């Protein structure tokens, strides 16, 4: 069977490996195996066609070295690209069977968001179309071109631009993603080291459905096997990726503290105070305490899988079970293993 070339464009947390990791707890070092994120899930799969994984971002060598140190074998390479420079994409994608488009931003100016999540996503789609590769685009739950939150708005416009170029593209929209090095549980665990309380705004009642990075990795592995039935099933579809549990933001704060473990009160502050705080923080250099107006607004909105999906949606849990024989992984089983 011919080896397929799979490009992880924007391999960072979600595209990287999750096993093994060294976790330092005071004097002891735990070496834990937490599962496989996308690169290793695809590279090590014995189902379907053998695959060569190319990780592509502006500086992919660091990630390649980390993957190799973690034991990922030779069927992996690194080729630099910058999605804001279309000329770098076409040569890097040459010969690819599938491109996973993953570059996204958490903080930035509206122009930076537009450059990456709209124009950049479109550039990747154009290059994927040029080389005739299958495209899997990673967006986010809440993506909405009409949103007044820049992150959600540019994710929504990005999806439209990708669809215009590649109508057959598959879109995955995750809720919060957890796994070693995630930017949610790790961040709040670290904040609890410095702050006497963990703040939520306006009660912290918005709902979230944390999904395990390795479950997304498994799904992408199945999608890139080169199985014509799976390719037909996912063509032009949207998968909203959520985990097995739905929790409010306030509950997630309590769970984070329980996993660490550390005792801190979770305190609800008025939304107006949060927005004022964000306006000040946005003007200061970025740090662990940085919170933006957009993020405060985002935290007021439910971030869960649509309970009434349209005909263009494919249920993530069903796909995970059908093609990977896996039930969605609970955060309760994993997060305590890596937060500190
Ligand atoms: N993590 C979550 O909880 C979550 C939730 C919902 C949706 N998502 C979406 O999932 C995707 C992946 O998220 P992630 O957490 O894995 O992000 P991440 O860790 O920030 O990784 C993104 C990678 O993109 C690369 N990159 C940045 N600018 C680039 C450019 N101009 N050209 C090429 N590469 C560039 C960066 O590597 P270099 O520095 O080497 O370029 C970075 O490592 C994003 O689209 C994100 O919006 C994530």
Automatic annotation (TrEMBL):
Q: Which Gene3D superfamilies match?
A: NAD(P)-binding Rossmann-like Domain
Instruction: Fetch the SUPFAM superfamilies from UniProt.
Output: NAD(P)-binding Rossmann-fold domains
- Pfam families, per the entry: NAD_binding_10
Gene Ontology molecular functions: protein-containing complex binding
Q: Where is the NAD(P)-binding domain?
A: 52-175
Q: Cite the CDD domains for this sequence.
A: NDUFA9_like_SDR_a
Q: What is this protein called?
A: NADH dehydrogenase
> Origin organism of this chain?
Coprinopsis marcescibilis (Agaric fungus)
């Amino acid at each position: 069977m011919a080896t397929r070339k799979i490009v992880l464009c924007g391999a960072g947390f979600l595209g990287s490996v999750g096993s093994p990791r060294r976790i330092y707890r005071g004097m002891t070092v735990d070496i834990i195996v937490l599962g496989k994120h996308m690169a290793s899930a695809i590279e090590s799969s014995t189902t379907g066609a053998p695959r060569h994984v190319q990780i592509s971002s502006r500086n992919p060598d660091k990630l390649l070295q980390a993957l190799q140190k973690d034991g990922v074998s030779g069927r992996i390479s690194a080729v630099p690209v910058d999605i804001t420079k279309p000329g770098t994409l076409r040569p890097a994608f040459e010969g690819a069977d599938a491109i996973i488009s993953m570059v996204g931003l958490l903080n930035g100016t509206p122009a930076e968001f537009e450059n990456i999540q709209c124009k950049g996503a479109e550039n990747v789609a154009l290059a994927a179309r040029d080389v005739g590769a299958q495209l899997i685009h990673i967006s986010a739950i809440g993506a909405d071109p009409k949103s007044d939150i820049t992150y959600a708005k540019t994710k929504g416009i990005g999806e439209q631009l990708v669809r215009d170029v590649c109508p057959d593209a598959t879109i995955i929209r995750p809720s919060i993603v957890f796994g070693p090095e995630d930017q949610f549980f790790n961040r709040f665990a670290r904040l609890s080291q410095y702050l006497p309380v963990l703040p939520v705004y306006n009660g912290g009642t918005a709902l979230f459905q944390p999904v395990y990075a390795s479950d997304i990795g498994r799904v992408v592995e199945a999608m890139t096997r080169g199985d014509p039935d799976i390719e037909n099933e996912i063509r032009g579809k949207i998968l909203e990726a959520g985990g097995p549990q739905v929790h409010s933001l306030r509950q997630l704060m309590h769970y984070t503290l329980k996993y660490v473990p550390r005792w801190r009160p979770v305190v609800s502050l008025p939304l107006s105070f949060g927005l004022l705080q964000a306006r000040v923080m946005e003007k200061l250099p970025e740090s662990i305490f940085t919170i933006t107006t957009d993020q405060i607004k985002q935290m007021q909105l439910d971030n869960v899988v649509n309970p009434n999906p349209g005909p263009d949606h494919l249920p993530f849990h069903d796909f995970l079970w059908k093609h990977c024989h896996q039930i969605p992984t609970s955060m309760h089983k994993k997060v305590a293993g890596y937060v500190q």
